[in-house]
Amino acid sequence: MPRQKSILSFLQRSSLDNRTSGASNQTVAEARARSWRQDASVPSKDDESAGSMPEMEVRGTDTPPEKEPRRLHQSKEDAGVSSLFSSIMHKFVRVDGCGRLSDGYKKCDDDHKGFHKVNEVMESNYPKKDSISLDIKMNDLDSECLAPAEIVADVPGPETPGVTVFAPRVKSVTEEIPKFDVGNFSSSPNPSKRVKLLQDDNMPTISNKCQDSVSKFEWLHPSRILDAKRRSPDDPLYDKCTLHIPQDALRKMSASQRQYWTVKCQYMDVVLFFKVGKFYELYELDAEIGHKELDWKMTFSGVGKCRQVGISESGIDEAVQKLVAHGYKVGRMEQLESSEQAKARGPNSVISRELVHVITPSTLVDCGIGPDAVHLLAIKEDLCGVNGSQISIGFAFVDCAALRFWTGSITDDASYAALGALLMQVAPKEVIYEATGLSKEAVKAIKKYSSAGTVGVQLTPTVSAAGFSSAIDVNDLIRAKQYFKSSGRVNCVLDNVGFQDIALSALGGLIEHLSRLMLDDVLKNGDISPYELYKGCLRMDGQTLLNLEVFNNSINGGLSGTLLKHLDNCITSSGKRLLRLWMCHPLKDVECINNRLKVVDILVGNPELVVIIGQNLRKLPDLERLLGRVMSSVHSSCSLLMPLIGKKILKNLVKAFGSLVKGLRIALDMVKALWEEVEIRNSLSKIFELPALNGSNGLEDAISQFEAALDSDFPKYQSHDVTDSDAETLSILIELFVEKASEWTAVIHGIGCIDVLRSFTLTAKSSLGSWSKPVIVPHTKTVKGPVLKMTGLWHPFALAENGGLPVPNDLFLGEDSDGSNPCTLLLTGPNMGGKSTLLRATCLAVILAQLGCYVPCEILVLSPVDTIFTRLGATDRIMAGESTFFVECMETASVLQNATEDSLVILDELGRGTSTFDGYAIAYAVFRYLVEKVNCRLLFATHYHPLTSEFGSHPRVKLQHMACTFQKSSGNLETDQQLVFLYQLASGACPESYGLKVASMAGIPTEVVESAMRASQVMKKSIGESFRSSELRSKFSTLHEGWLKSLLSVSKLQDDSDEDTLDTLFCLWHELKGCYS
Q1: Phi/psi of residue 781, nearest 5 degrees
Q2: Buried b / exposed e across 561-579, counting CB within 10 Å, b at 16+?
Q3: Which one, of 421, 377, 422, lies nearest residue 548 by Cα?
Q4: Residue 316: C-alpha distances to residues 128, 274, 986 (Å)
Q5: Sheet holding 329-335: strands in order across?
Q6: Is the pLDDT of residue 431 over 90?
Q7: 130 and 106 in contact (C-beta within 8 Å)?
Q8: Cα separation of 789 and 815, whole Å?
Q9: What is the reported pTM?
Q10: Dihedral angle of Cα 362, 367, 371, 374, to the nearest 10 degrees
């Protein structure tokens, strides 16, 4: 330690002896002190001189003249007498605050071998791919590094947007010394002393100081930053996507700087890579992101001292993927010409560059994005109806990888349940909306349903005062730009869409966003279709999808424990996406449901065929996305003309086209083999249609011709070495191939249907419990009302406590050919008795049946359900200012307003979020309304036992409970008896909920439970009279009282032909008959 302190004091002490030798012999301490003053913005003579020549900070020669390399080491004639300083020089390579080698160290003796060893070891320790700051900079012609001459030739000048003169490799290594094993590069016998010295508190840390420094540009300072319209960040209309750069600052920039900042000021929300020779660089705010997310070394060298990071072109794809995976939008400014072409235009010409494309998490098209669809959604809200009583929402979304667009509109209420359903169905990665045109409640709904999954959804509000374009402007833009050429007129597509104006306006917002991302090829070659949220299918709003855990579980939003996870045995990516689409829209049409069930029935009876289908499906690539990639390349030759990347794009396109052709050949062979079986062909042809396979215009001849062309021109398409002539050949082949795009799409859709139906078959065969084919019955003369008959029902993916299957139960609601049953089940039972599991299992069985899949029952007879409503669990929305009871009431209101006779309604413990009497009153009123006014299939679970007395004799209500029993223990007290759950549905009402037993099982101390028991007895005794009077009403409830009053009123009427009067008399007759028979 004394030795280290003496060395440190020597390095920090000003050398009075060297002052007389001139400025060239300036000490290290003086050089570092001057750099610290500059970093701290302390006025000095150097600053004043720089201020008098502002252009020197940011300008340089774009194509510099030849310069003699600067010498790093001291010449022999300048070598002095050996001293302590020179003896330790080989251990310490110092840099000043700006990252330049200090003058004192430039005078180092050339004979010190340790310095050379640092350079050699550092060359081997730093990979070229990881950090541009550790690589040889191409445009530093003054550098003494071992830079290959051909690298420098690719860049006409040393100028980059950051005006950074590339520092020697020595500087980068010395800043990173404390982070690495000293033994790898130190020539000192005791390298630990060196590390301790550099980490000494008395010595400022240059790298940390540089990382914490702010930008040299005043207009980038957080306190001075403005958007393009000079609005500050605290302005409500502040546009974070743009930046205001003063004109004076732009004039002082070099040509390459202006190239960068002219684009960057319009894309402040994008991490923008700038191509410089064989490197891609990030500057200023983007450099901070590269340093933070990718752990790239940030440099500060150069006249302008602009912060920058970067990477070689060999690692750019991986870097972009990592940034996009972290949720960033990433753009690339590519070079449109070589350095020789730029020099041919003039000695001071700069290479032309252009923003080629912007990649975002919602517009990914390349491989590695997984089988799930990646959607970008735009929505627009408006009021409709009488006095704005209804809410209309227009929407449009796109899957860029598949080149598919959808647009439509929905009507909604204050609960925004339909918007929730849209968000759950589409599952967008990003949502675009008007910041000033969307209500707070709609924004809350977007955030609620967008956060249901494991991956966060990016919300992008527009800040334009005008919002999305009008419908007329959008139509004009589509015609002018020739978007959606394959779909015809957009107005024809929207013929069956209500509120076309807001749907087109949302589409306009989506088009504007994609145009800004340089995705015009997607817009021109994309196919657009109408999207109907509920038409022709079983309706499930967003809350129902959440409650039933159809796509996301309630624990962490993942797939585990969801219906999608249980059903997904698909092999192909297109099959997995189609399965999710089918689950969003279960069928209502009996014939369509039975057509799917017929195919599943055939496959269940033919396991060999299932195996053969699976073997062929495993050979297929993602045909849907390959077709989209190939179609997007039509008439898109601009990217192929770019140097360096054009060849890479062409090579990837050859590989994609070859994989698509070979994959379609496998698909057609499989379809032809299936079509030879008459039974399976007749059944599958009712589910999807295929174009003609044989004949002169058949797909068989077409695919054979493309295979022959591929084998002739690109025999090794997976690794084909492309040439200049390949671009024209491939372009012709693709144009011919795309002429049959609709036929190829139909084949791919058919393959997806086969994959999904095979998945349904495996689900029915691989599960442990009993699965059966459901019987779907339409409304007929014999079956007039809704019916739901289940025998041996069990939850498909909820295991019992011992790891076995749940206890099966029987459930009968509605009337069928065997007789009539009440449509309502009033369910009671103890806490944890299995009531919620039974409710969820019932809904899941209905969904599976209407998907065309086997169900977890021994017998299921079902008339189609039009809507499933659920009110399950207890949740609040604290951030939205909504209590648990308020959420309950909102969901219940949606049920009361929209339920029909064909609906299935599940209500679990309604009214528990408020006081006992208010909660009971609401539960009673809601239950009676649904029973008498709607008469739908209703499962109502409650702990309000007086309800069983009120409706025990109602002809439309059935009382059942989840059974339990007691197991005696060694004690004599009542609390010593253990409650055992049987999970069996039994007739009648449960006497109580046994809450104290469950509290004891949960671990509440015994003394507290016994105190609660005594309090319960006191309460029952104090209001015992009221309890007894309530129990007496089981034979004469308020319903009977109402009938009696109606009968008295009828007796006073002369005309008794009124329909309500007859219904009242019939109900009274039915009740009397039931009581006295």
Answers
A1: -70, -30
A2: ebbeebbbbbbbbbbbbbb
A3: 421
A4: 12, 11, 66
A5: 308-312, 279-283, 270-276, 329-335, 353-359
A6: yes
A7: no
A8: 9
A9: 0.77
A10: 10
**Pair of tokens at residue 565:** 């996870």
Structure token pair of residue 670: 């499989």
Strands (E), 424-546: 430-434, 458-462, 527-530, 539-540
Distance CA 822, CA 959 (A): 10
d(CA 8, CA 2): 10
CA dist., res. 759 & res. 762, Å (int): 5
Is residue 139 pLDDT above 60, yes or no? Answer: no
Pair 42, 231: CB distance under 8 Å: no
Q: Give the rounded percent of residues in the chain with a pLDDT score beyond 70.
A: 69
Q: What number of residues does the chain have?
A: 1077
Q: Contact 31/95 with Cβ under 8 angstroms?
A: no
Asked if residues 474 and 444 have their Cβ atoms less than 8 Å apart, the reply is: no
Mean pLDDT score across all residues of the chain: 77
For 924-977, how does the pLDDT look when each residue is reduced to its tens digit (9 = 90+)?
A: 999 999 998 999 999 999 988 888 888 888 888 999 999 988 877 655 555 567
d(CA 825, CA 829): 13
Q: How far apart are CA 412 and CA 905, in angstroms?
A: 19
Three-point CA angle 429, 402, 589, nearest 5°: 90
Of 15-19, 457-461, 469-473, 485-489, where does mean pLDDT reach its minimum?
15-19
Q: Residue 133's pLDDT is what?
A: 38
Q: Tell me the chain's radius of gyration from C-alpha atoms.
A: 38
Q: How far is CA 317 from CA 65, 273, 636, 916, 971, in A?
A: 34, 11, 21, 62, 71
430-434 and 376-384 as β-strands: parallel, antiparallel, unpaired? parallel
> Above 50 in pLDDT, residue 772?
yes
| Helix axis angle, 2-12 to 191-198, nearest 10° | 50
* Residue appearing with tokens 């490799």: 169
Strands (E), 796-892: 809-816, 819-820, 824-828, 859-862, 867-871
Phi-psi region for residue 935, left (φ > 0), alpha (ψ -120 to 50) or beta? left
CA atoms of 156 and 597, how far apart (whole Å): 69
| Cα(80)–Cα(556) distance, integer angstroms | 70
Q: Write the single-letter amino acid at 955.
A: P
Strand-pair category, 329-335 with 270-276 = parallel
- pLDDT of amino acid 1057: 57
Which three-class secondary structure state does DSSP give residue 743?
Answer: helix
Give the residue with greater pLDDT, 170 vs 73.
73
Of 156-170, 229-243, 439-453, 665-679, the one with minimum mean pLDDT is: 156-170
Please give the Cα distance from 19 to 29 (Å, whole number).
12
For residue 822, count other CB atoms closer than 10 A to its CB: 21
Tokens at residue 189, please?
């016998």
Would you tell me how many other CB atoms lie within 10 Å of the CB of residue 325?
Answer: 13
Whole-angstrom Cα distance, residue 920 to residue 948? 12
Strand order in the sheet with 430-434: 458-462, 430-434, 376-384, 390-399, 404-412, 527-530
Planar angle of CA 13, 14, 16, nearest 5 degrees: 130
Q: Is the Cα torsion angle 553, 557, 563, 566 positive or negative in sign? A: negative
Residues 759, 568: Cα–Cα separation, whole Å: 6
Cβ atoms within 10 Å of 529's Cβ, excluding its own:
12
* Cα separation values, 690 from 41, 94, 516, 662, 1071, Å: 73, 73, 38, 19, 58
Burial (0-12, 13-18, 19+ Cβ within 10 Å), 626:
buried
The letter for the amino acid at 230 is: R
**In the block, which residue shows the tokens 């709003």?**
541
Q: Is 665 helix (H, G, I), strand (E, B) or coil?
A: helix
Q: Is 775 helix (H, G, I), strand (E, B) or coil?
A: strand
DSSP codes of every residue in 1000-1056: HHTT--HHHHHHHHHHHHHHHHHTHHHHHHHHHTTSS-HHHHHHHHHHHHHHT-S--
